[in-house]
Predict the structure.
Amino acid sequence: MSDESKPRPRWLNKTVLGIGLASLFSDWSHEMATTVMPAFLATMGVAAFWVGLIEGVSDGLSSFAKMASGYYTDKLTRRKPVAVIGYLVTALGTASFGLATAAWHVLMARAFAWLGRGVRTPVRKALLAGSVTKETYGRAFGFERMMDTLGAIVGPASAFFLLGVFNHHYPSLFAVTLIPSLIAVGLIAFVVREKERKPVAHVSFGERLRMLPPSFRKFLVAVGLFGAGDFAHTLLILLATQKLTPELGAAKAASFAVGLYVLHNVFYAGFAFIAGWLADRLPKHLVLASGYALAAVMALMIIFLPLTLWTLVGIFILGGVYVAVEETLEDSFCAELVSEEHHGVAFGTLATVNGVGDFLSSIIVGVLWSWAGTTAAFGYSAILFTAGAVLVASMPPMRVLSQSPGS
């Protein structure tokens, strides 16, 4: 049978579907917990400082866990058991919020859950990349991001519904998070298939990083620049609440702000697959640069437009679209720039750069906002968004970079 007559492998195979569904159910679980965590902490009489500390410590631990997991799992014949353990740790850590009686208990539970999340992330991405061809990386990663974001829509909605059902008894709600999270564990364990692979030879961590191609390192610089300005979008919720309160009142403004964030996530979910589809048909570096540029446009809208309800609608929609492009294209870009045997350490390094950027950007934007106002805060972000877009756009086409000498 000639190569032309052979059936092409399907990109939406059992592994891609299993990973996508696992992302949906896992995100459903921890978004339920995250949505009510501030209110749960408020019942303990703690200050906002604790919310920031819990998020910061958890994100930092998760970032370095991603790096370590990616490096370690490249040396294994089978990566999937590590992913199963990571999903299980996240499930148990999230449900254990219900056992907390003090803020430091929540800190420990969240850190434990996010440790599992960090361990599983590069493994999941490596399994996903290993299950499809290079020509379909965009659609596979776009599908996974879309499913993950559907969980981010269903999770908060479930939390608000269950708070009424349980009459604001938080331990009962946290216990319910076990249902979707254990479904996610089962999907990874029993649906996802892992191809046989040859583990990389044991070398030092530094040597492994030096083995990654120069094009990937340039890509990481662009990601780092962009990420240093890419603030958490909970700050958009705060912005909408503040700007709408004089006209609508505090309670109504808060409700509208939450509704805008749901709209943000709807566009995020919808455009994740579209971004992946485009990435498989157009030069990936230009699609990613376009996403980065949309982020700059969003920041400039905040600075120069009157922040009415309708301009805020546009800002939140742009925020959802650019995040969809950013996350889908960064993953598929990474998968193409690095050979498959090094996918673990590459995805781990990418996740760590993103995690450090997320941590720093939100702090810097928050401080600038408090001290110098929104023009300085979002102007800082716009400059870094633009710098990241220019650097990515200047890279040669990825298909050229990803070819090996013998291909």
Notes: DSSP finds 16 helices and no strands in the chain.
